[in-house]
Amino acid sequence: MKAGVVGAGLMGAEIALVFALAGHDVLLHDRSGDALERAVERLGGILDNGVSRKFYDAGQVKAALERIEPVKALAAMAECAMVTEAVYESLDAKADVLRALDEACASDCILATNTSTLPISTLAAFLTPDRRARFLGTHYFSPVSRMKLVGIIPAFATAPAISDEAIAILEGIGKQPVRIKDVAGFAVNACSTRC
């Protein structure tokens, strides 16, 4: 499976990394070429540190980095089976990226957003009606390379089969997906107020 990640910041770069470590080819996009370069350099440092701590072996690190391809055009995401939007927490910024991905991605691509504050169903409204069934939230915890938990947040229109497929994909990259209702703050805020 080829995966895509849009946003080469701390979260996006590490989301790309965990897919690559699991053997998937990954396209990593950012509108800034400098951000892409910094992301790849940062990931190299994370992996080198992991080798020194015996989390990874040197061969695994080299192969993972080779699987991550920085891309400057969102059109490249047409090749991907799953694309995760991981830009900063701005409704307008996420809306712009989601609209562009809706146009660029194949009709059978799963679109995911990594957000911790914005309702998934609000973000789904920026997609065409046909795309909404294949859209959901995947809330990773930081640092993504070390934290196993990922919240799976379906929007109102998300098809149950797509949630199941996303869960299987995430389990395949070593994560522990947990289904969460589409409420502000998701699991962390719910636990901090109820646990």
Describe the structure.
The chain has 195 residues and is an alpha/beta fold. It has a single domain (2-194), classed as NAD(P)-binding Rossmann-like Domain (Rossmann fold), CATH 3.40.50. 45% of the residues lie in helices and 19% in strands. The chain has helices at 10-21, 33-52, 58-67, 91-104, 120-124, 129-132, 160-172, 186-194; strands at 2-6, 25-29, 68-71, 82-85, 110-113, 135-140, 149-154, 176-179. The protein has an 8-stranded mixed sheet, with helices on both faces. A hairpin with an 8-residue loop joins β6 (135-140) and β7 (149-154). α1 crosses α2 (33-52). The longest helix is centred in the N-terminal third of the chain and has 20 residues, at 33-52. The chain is globular, with a radius of gyration of 16 Å. The N and C termini lie far apart (37 Å). Residues 186-195 have low confidence and may be disordered.
